[in-house]
Design brief:
This protein folds into two domains: 192 residues, FAD/NAD(P)-binding domain, CATH 3.50.50; 142 residues, 2-Layer Sandwich (D-Amino Acid Oxidase, Chain A, domain 2). Helix content is 28%, strand content 25%. It is built from nine helices and 20 strands. The strands form three sheets. Strands 5, 6, 7, 13, 14, 15, 16, 17 and 18 form a nine-stranded mixed β-sheet that branches. Strands 1, 2, 9, 10, 11, 12, 19 and 20 form an eight-stranded mixed β-sheet that branches. It has a three-stranded antiparallel β-sheet with strand order 3-8-4. The protein binds flavin-adenine dinucleotide. Flavin-adenine dinucleotide binds next to helix 1 and strand 18.
């Protein structure tokens, strides 16, 4: 039987980030992921490295986390991120007051903005519609989730963590009110502590230990179209809604997204109308979308918490929560964003280290990921079986 200090269940960004953080503090970690790394939501994200401007008006605290963490990732994540910048554009139907309010909210949070004339913004992005009435620039970027996962997993491994893709956890063993082990199809792993980083599946994983974690997942669709020549993230400057973001890749743009509550994160309706809506909203910002080929359509499921303060659908908090349970030796993390995965991992690792009496501090914000060489990074993506639809066009 394998023995370890901590088992992390779930190999999305959050789980892999936790494995790295704990391993860097000298904790023995085994991570089990039921599919390839990122098979859940991380490999199916829109891939926007949020500056926080999207959240500045409604959630200043979340926006402040985003600007801090996006700066960290720009520094440490090498070729797993692209430093593109982002534009917020106002179209004729959009409320001018929302534009002013967003700039003011960005300033309050400390997110730099640069207001651009309509000529200047179309010089920067010639594919933008000539209907733009006002625009400003923010330090948004693009994340390649498979690469970020692979680099984080490799760093964890270099610090001694064992990363096991394709190892679904089938049971959490509890004795006398304390978690003692987990089981996969092949073996039992004894552990002093178990972290449930199961994303939208966190409720189901908690059930294995007889614990309730109410989840309120929502799905979102991404539509990739073969439009070239867009270099910045383009955000429609209005209250967050469907289809208001265009994320640029080398030879395509990814349009998204939606937010529809679902019961089952493994089985939900995928609505063709949502795809059509993304194309229409995308065309309003980038007219060449109308005649472009759709090259991919994929859906992700947000790991939103459904407890007391969670909210629902688009109103649900995009912040994260770290939960203790009546069963000792189990910590669950819910919510959050890909942009803030390192911060989430730090908060969870702090809680676990406190229980295990480990006093080493978090060092993940200052230590570069092994992500400088794109070819080596893409080989790691293969090794960890981390290929996902969010960046198949970039990786390899
Ligand atoms: C449509 C959409 C667009 C998004 N866009 C952005 C964006 O542009 N920018 C941003 O910052 N964030 C974005 N997000 C949010 C972000 O993608 C997620 O918050 C983040 O990826 C969640 O990571 P996670 O590790 O918590 O969950 P996941 O990536 O889902 O990881 C949980 C893992 O647990 C595994 N698992 C489940 N059951 C078991 C089991 N029994 N045993 C072992 N493993 C198990 C799953 O397979 C899964 O891989 C988006 C989310 C969605 C849905």
């Amino acid at each position: 039987m394998t023995e370890t200090d901590v088992v992390v269940i779930g190999g999305g960004a959050t789980g892999v980030g936790i494995a790295r953080d704990l391993a860097m503090r000298g904790v023995d970690v085994v991570l089990c992921e039921r599919g390839g790394l990122g098979a859940g939501t991380t490999g199916r994200s829109h891939g926007l490295l949020h500056s926080g401007a999207r959240y500045a008006t409604a959630d200043p605290e979340g926006a402040a986390e985003c600007i801090r963490e996006s700066r960290v990732l720009r520094d440490i994540a090498g070729k797993a991120v692209e430093r593109t910048d982002g534009l917020f554009v106002q179209l004729p139907d959009d409320d001018p007051a929302a534009f002013d309010a967003r700039i003011e909210a960005c300033h309050d949070v400390g997110i730099p903005t640069e207001t651009l004339s309509t000529d200047a913004v179309r010089d920067i992005e010639p594919e933008l519609t000539s209907d733009v009435t006002r625009a400003f620039r923010v330090p948004d970027g693009v994340i390649y989730p498979s690469r970020l996962l692979a680099a984080t997993a490799e760093s964890a491994r270099q610090h001694g963590a064992e990363i096991r893709p394709n190892a679904p956890v089938t049971d959490i063993v509890v004795a006398d009110g304390t978690v003692t082990a987990i089981e996969t199809d092949d073996e039992r792993i004894a552990a002093d502590h178990v972290v449930n980083a199961g994303g939208a599946w966190a409720g189901r994983i908690a059930e294995l230990a007889g614990v309730e974690v109410p989840m309120a997942p929502t799905t979102g669709v991404m539509v990739a179209v073969d439009v070239e020549g867009v270099d910045s993230v383009i955000n429609r400057c209005r209250p967050p809604g469907d289809g208001d973001i265009v994320v640029p890749h080398e030879d395509r743009v990814v349009l998204g997204t939606t937010s529809t509550p679902v019961e089952d994160p493994d089985d939900f309706p995928t609505d063709e109308d949502a795809v059509v809506a993304m194309l229409m909203e995308g065309t309003a910002m980038v007219p060449s979308v109308a005649a472009a080929d759709v090259v991919d359509v994929y859906w992700g499921v947000r790991p939103l918490y459904g407890g007391d303060d969670g909210g629902r659908g688009r109103d649900a908090s995009r912040g994260f929560q770290v939960h203790d349970h009546d069963v000792a030796g189990l910590t669950t993390v819910t919510g959050g964003k890909l942009t803030t995965y390192r911060l989430m991992a730090e908060a969870v690792s702090d809680a676990v280290c406190e229980r295990l009496s480990v006093s080493e501090p978090c060092r993940t914000a200052d230590a570069e990921l092994p992500a400088e060489d794109a070819e080596e990074l893409d080989a790691l993506v293969e090794t960890f079986d981390a290929v996902g639809p969010a960046d198949t066009d970039i990786v390899g």
